[in-house]
Design brief:
The chain has 370 residues and is an alpha/beta fold. The strands form 2 sheets. An 8-stranded mixed β-sheet has the order 7-8-10-9-11-12-13-14, sandwiched between helices. A 6-stranded antiparallel beta barrel has the order 1-2-5-4-3-6. The longest helix has 16 residues. It is globular, with a radius of gyration of 21 Å. 47% of the residues are buried.
């Protein structure tokens, strides 16, 4: 039983979990192959590969992405799922033997919009790459902020969802991203330091004509958006936040992870104690210990001053829906919470692109543009 776990086992769990939270893990590859004359992909069956919606696979050998869509067969005995390649006829000549499963379905900025350019944003450590998507409206900019251990390509879905509004979009990188050169951070700081790089992106937007700025953050990107809205010297230009599956309380998110692993609450407490301890923080590559008080918007009522939309699936197992519900209750005057169809963490767009886009654009039109 979990509550009988000895102290040494709990401490061991805490060390492993603390590292997992802030350190980049290995890719989770799945076996895959083409079937039906290249019209379908057969891939290992799990909760992610059997989820309805649009997704992609990346072949590390060919260094190529392939889009997948409708499920045509689930074989529970042989533990595989078959999905149609989407769009039809776009598949490769060969695939596998292993692939990386991804919620990204665009793969390249040109697939989102032909009106883009790569720009360099000055930061405290040098220049960070970003994509700039030109919109009809050069006065209103959206800064799209990805989460931990992903990269900026994962935000193409968000750019696509905002596109009907005609805003200018900026998709920045930040210090823990692999593409930043030279490397700047061995570990994620849960938004605590990364927000400064996003603030540099806000400064870039202001310098290039942005009068109003919307911050759109997914997962840890939500933490970053909230910090930026509070601390940025340009915060008077930030008129709204859109948060998707956001981490609005790292304490509660870590506690939920421990509970899912059948570890008692004391285990989650140990994880946070380690991440707050300067010696352990230095040992795992953190530039500074994690300040969980600074990353808490649920148990700190009315902290959010900017109109905020939260889009979140009630089926999210990584950042439970209940955290967003508590976040909304703590900030009733500024936060609107909209439940979306069942989806895994930050895959709400994949499950229903139209629903996601309609809810987002409706809220922006009524709350920001009115």
């Amino acid at each position: 039983m979990a509550f009988l776990a000895p102290p040494t086992a709990l401490f061991g769990f805490a060390v492993v979990m603390a590292r997992k939270i802030v350190k980049r893990g290995p890719k989770d590859y799945r076996r895959a192959e083409l079937t039906d004359d290249g019209l379908k992909v057969r891939i290992d069956l799990d909760d992610y590969t059997k989820a309805p919606g649009e997704f992609g696979v990346f072949d590390p050998v060919a260094e190529r992405y392939t889009g997948v869509g409708e499920i045509t067969l689930i074989d529970h005995d042989q533990k595989f799922v078959e999905r149609l390649i989407h769009p039809a006829g776009s598949g490769p000549a060969a695939l596998g033997p292993v692939v990386d499963w991804t919620p990204d379905v665009f793969f390249e900025p040109s697939a989102v919009s032909g009106r883009f350019e790569e720009v360099r944003i000055p930061t405290a450590y040098g220049e960070a790459p970003a994509w700039l998507f030109e919109g009809r409206n050069a006065d209103t900019w959206v800064i799209h902020i990805h989460g931990s251990w992903t990269d900026r390509t994962i935000m193409f879905r968000d750019v696509h969802a905002f596109s009907p509004l005609g805003f200018t979009s900026l998709v920045p990188s930040f210090r823990s991203d692999l593409e930043v050169s030279p490397p700047q951070a061995e570990a994620s700081h849960l938004g605590q330091t990364e927000w400064r790089d996003v603030d540099s992106a806000v400064g870039y937007a202001v310098a290039h004509g942005a009068q109003r700025i919307i911050l759109s953050g997914w997962s840890m990107g939500g933490t970053i958006a909230l910090l930026t809205a509070e601390l940025s010297p340009y915060r008077d230009r930030i008129v709204g936040l859109v948060l998707v599956g956001p981490v609005t309380s790292w304490r509660k998110a870590i506690a939920a992870g421990a509970a899912a692993a059948c570890v008692p609450a004391v285990g989650a407490g140990l994880v946070m104690s380690l991440l707050q301890a300067p010696p352990f923080a230095r040992m795992i590559g953190l530039e500074e210990p994690i300040n969980f008080n600074a990353l808490e918007w649920v148990d700190n009522p009315n902290r959010v001053a900017v109109p905020t939309l939260v889009l979140h699936s009630s089926a999210d197992q990584e950042v439970p829906w209940e955290i967003s519900a508590a976040f909304q209750r703590a900030n009733p005057d500024t936060v609107t919470l909209i439940p979306l169809p069942e989806a895994h963490h930050t895959q709400e767009w994949n499950a229903s692109p139209d629903t996601f886009t309609n809810e987002l654009t409706s809220w922006i039109s009524k709350t920001i543009l009115n």
